[in-house]
């Protein structure tokens, strides 16, 4: 794989990271016991995992500075790549394997990835009495967004690896002039003007939204959703019935994602109450990432993100009204599109020079809090059944990175008739993360049996 410049948004993520605030995303996958045949022991899972990961070209790439453009960086093949530096096995006591994996995953997610190597790690977590196991995957956010992470990580599964074509010989590309022709030059200019126009519009919206929120923000946050980074992480998981989520959707209209966002809002309200805290004076604002990749198009390298801003109706006491408020707000966001509004702030990265990302990262690191209070994202998974070494995938809990100054991120993945939810929190600010996970289940129980009026139209 040849050298490839980091896209502007990838470069921004690369420079936003610090030692005490790592910026990687991840997934904790739980598998059933691998099968045994003819009395033989199960396959060498660590060796299998290492071979599968080493066969993914993107995982052999590291980041290196370049002379041009000034301040830029590029992906290049690591000449000393050794998969054993990235794939390791940890054996747990196995007395409470799910809880043990969550605790260990939190410890491992605290640790920054070695920036001198390809920026990823995988851990095989074994020790369950029944032979089941888990795999923790860590990918730097510069390497992938959620959809790209799925495309990269899927290479470890039996079904994906079996269909992978062996790499053929690279054919030489005929030399051509680096100067674009007149038609291409006109197209580049037209696209650039359109991008600049959108950037100006988004920038104005970002400034307006930031100024409006800055007036009521404490410069020294102490609330449960805002905290100075402690460098620690806590992870909790929840599993919801996808059938129940769709039953609510069919009754009320909107989308399954609307229902899940409303459940997050209700769980936060329940969590505030359980802590004995007053409700916030204003509803917390969530950034809901939106992929800019076209449906059906292959997932290209790096990040391709925009986002919607959504005020989660935590102060609304009625569950049905919370769901209606979420549906109305998301409909309004979708009507405007992912290239409009302050939530599309990621688009501004494309307009900045690499030097701006390199030197402006310390200033921009805390700016997220001026726009939103927490991240709530949905990561799609393949619908077909997946396995590793013949062991069936039971659950996959995605884990999103925390923005600086924030203490909670929520990621959700539907798979196998369930919605698997991964909660990542600052360990010092949110020591009771398990209570929030339990609140999600309680909110589904509350919303599902409600006698809600049939919607006139469902999507």
TrEMBL record:
Pathway: Lipid metabolism; Glycerolipid metabolism; triacylglycerol biosynthesis
Major enzyme class: transferase
Reactions listed under catalytic activity: an acyl-CoA + a 1,2-diacyl-sn-glycerol = a triacyl-sn-glycerol + CoA
Keyword Lipid metabolism: yes
InterPro entries: Acyl_transf_WS/DGAT (IPR014292), CAT-like_dom_sf (IPR023213), O-acyltransferase_WSD1-like (IPR045034), O-acyltransferase_WSD1_C (IPR009721), O-acyltransferase_WSD1_N (IPR004255)
GO CC terms in record: plasma membrane
Family that this chain belongs to: Belongs to the long-chain O-acyltransferase family.
Protein name: Diacylglycerol O-acyltransferase
Organism encoding this protein: Streptomyces vietnamensis
């Amino acid at each position: 794989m040849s050298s490839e410049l980091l896209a502007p948004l990838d470069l921004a993520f690369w420079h936003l990271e610090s030692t005490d605030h790592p910026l990687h995303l991840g997934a904790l996958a739980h598998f059933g016991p691998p099968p045994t045949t003819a009395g033989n022991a199960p396959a060498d899972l660590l060796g299998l995992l290492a071979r599968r990961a080493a066969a993914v070209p993107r995982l052999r790439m590291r980041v290196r500075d370049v002379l041009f453009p000034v301040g830029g960086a590029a992906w290049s093949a690591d000449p000393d790549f050794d998969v054993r530096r990235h794939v390791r096995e940890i054996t747990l006591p196995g007395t409470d394997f799910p809880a043990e994996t969550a605790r260990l995953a939190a410890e491992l997610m605290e640790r920054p990835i070695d920036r001198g190597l390809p920026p990823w790690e995988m851990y095989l977590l074994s020790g369950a009495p029944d032979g089941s196991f888990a795999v923790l995957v860590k990918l730097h956010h510069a390497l992938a967004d959620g959809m790209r992470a799925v495309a990269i990580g899927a290479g470890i599964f039996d079904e994906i690896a079996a269909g992978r074509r062996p790499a053929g010989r690279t054919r030489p590309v005929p030399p051509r002039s680096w100067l674009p022709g007149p038609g291409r030059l006109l197209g580049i200019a037209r696209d650039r003007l359109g991008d600049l126009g959108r950037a100006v519009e988004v920038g104005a919206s970002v400034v307006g939204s930031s100024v409006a929120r800055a007036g009521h923000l404490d410069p020294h946050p102490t609330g449960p959703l805002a905290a100075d980074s402690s460098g620690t992480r806590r992870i909790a998981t929840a599993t919801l019935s996808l059938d129940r989520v769709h039953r609510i959707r069919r009754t009320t209209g909107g989308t399954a994602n609307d229902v899940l966002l409303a459940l997050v809002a209700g769980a936060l309200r329940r969590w505030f109450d359980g802590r004995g805290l007053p409700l916030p004076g204003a509803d917390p604002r969530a950034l809901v990432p939106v992929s800019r990749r076209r449906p059906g198009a292959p997932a290209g390298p790096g990040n391709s993100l925009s986002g919607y801003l959504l005020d989660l109706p935590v102060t609304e006491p009625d569950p049905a009204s919370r769901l209606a408020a979420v549906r109305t707000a998301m409909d309004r966001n979708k009507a405007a599109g992912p290239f409009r509004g302050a939530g599309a702030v990621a688009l501004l990265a494309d307009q900045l020079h690499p030097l701006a990302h390199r030197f402006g990262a310390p200033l921009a690191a805390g700016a997220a809090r001026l726009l939103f209070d927490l991240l709530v994202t949905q990561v799609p998974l393949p619908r077909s059944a997946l396995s590793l070494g013949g062991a069936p995938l039971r659950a996959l809990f995605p884990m999103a990175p925390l923005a600086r100054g924030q203490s909670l991120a929520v990621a959700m993945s539907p798979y196998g008739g369930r919605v698997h939810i991964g909660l990542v929190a600052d360990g010092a600010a949110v020591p009771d993360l398990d209570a929030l996970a339990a609140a999600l289940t309680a909110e589904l129980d509350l919303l599902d049996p409600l006698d809600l009026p049939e919607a006139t139209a469902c999507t």
